[in-house]
Structure to design on (184 residues):
């Protein structure tokens, strides 16, 4: 495996990256990128010159295994990790970890201090769904439970912490879990 910067010249890999977005988000977030065209639109946005777009490819067959993107914010002091997608058949094999570690390096090289991300809970995957988040919010965050394999625990293992919640971001009772990590 090797990590590359995805560019507009990687026509075949761009197609693969778009398909991975569709496939990786289909089960829990089917509205994220429901079609290849919408996946392609997202990948092309990721290729803008001020963003980060990195990919892991298989050395032997040059198949794309995963992709990660970053959006600069706050004069590039903060970078939003968006999106992270790994080919479903290759998930839980360390590819996401490799991508995040590389992303941290890319942010550090650009003078970034913090990485942030939103991890939606649209499918009642955590104990933060369908509860009043305006009452005792920090207690609810402290006591969060992962009910249906929500990715927030993966990000915690990567050093991210929950720094906030956007209640009802995806409809009534469907919050966005905001996570952040200091770049060292």
């Amino acid at each position: 495996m090797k990590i590359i910067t995805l560019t507009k010249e990687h026509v075949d890999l761009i197609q693969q990256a778009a398909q991975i977005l569709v496939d990786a988000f289909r089960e829990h977030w089917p509205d994220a990128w429901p079609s290849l065209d919408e996946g392609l639109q997202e990948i092309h946005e990721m290729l803008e010159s001020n963003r980060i777009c990195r990919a892991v490819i298989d050395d032997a067959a040059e198949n794309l295994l995963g992709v990660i993107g970053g959006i600069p914010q706050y004069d590039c002091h903060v970078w939003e990790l968006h999106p992270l997608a790994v080919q479903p058949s290759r998930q839980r094999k360390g590819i996401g970890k490799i991508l995040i570690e590389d992303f941290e390096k890319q942010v550090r090289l650009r003078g970034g201090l913090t990485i942030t991300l939103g991890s939606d809970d649209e499918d009642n995957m955590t104990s933060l769904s369908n509860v009043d988040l305006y009452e005792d919010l920090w207690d609810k965050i402290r006591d969060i439970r992962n009910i249906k394999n929500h990715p927030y625990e993966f990000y915690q293992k990567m050093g991210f912490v929950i720094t906030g919640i956007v209640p009802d971001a995806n409809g009534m009772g469907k919050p966005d879990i905001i996570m952040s990590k200091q770049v060292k």
